[in-house]
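Dear support,

I submitted the protein below through the web form. The confirmation email said the job was done, but the results page showed an empty box. After a refresh the structure appeared. I'm attaching both so you can tell me whether what I see now is the final result or a partial one.
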Amino acid sequence: MNSILLIGRGGHCSSCIDVIEAEGKYQIAGIVEKPNGSRESIFGYDILGDDNDLPELLITYPTVCISVGQIKNPDLRVKLYTSLKNMGAQLPVIVSPHAHVSRHAEIKESTIVMHGVVLNAGCSIGKNCIINTQALIEHDTVVESHCHISTGAKVNGAAFVGTQSFVGSGSVIHESVRI
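What the results page shows now:
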């Protein structure tokens, strides 16, 4: 089983751990935290270093998951994504086995699809997105890169969610709406 390194130790990290463990494709090697961040382990996974240690850690663990959340703004996730890509990191798609993803849906790298999500036929999800627990993305919807579709949000058919958007918990986006 391949190892994966988690980047960020906050609350979203706990949810990422649960999805990665359930998916069963990767063994979590440990977590990278910001300088001066907490060094306390989560669910038995140790902090292996901070952002300054990434170049060296990526030699041993080239596959990573950005486990930093995105509520106030996407800047940190975008910065981490760009930095990791420039360092040659591999950023896979992570999909909960408890999600339904149509075989006609497209999901790009560094996106995580959490438990209970439904991605319907013809939808397209960009790079470095969080599709959070129980979100529904309907047919022919486009969610561009670096977006967070939060818990229980519903994005109806043929909607368009532009780059770096945040759709809050329980929101309903009507069909064909552009954000």
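Response: this is the final, complete result; the empty box was a page-load delay. The longest helix spans residues 11-23.
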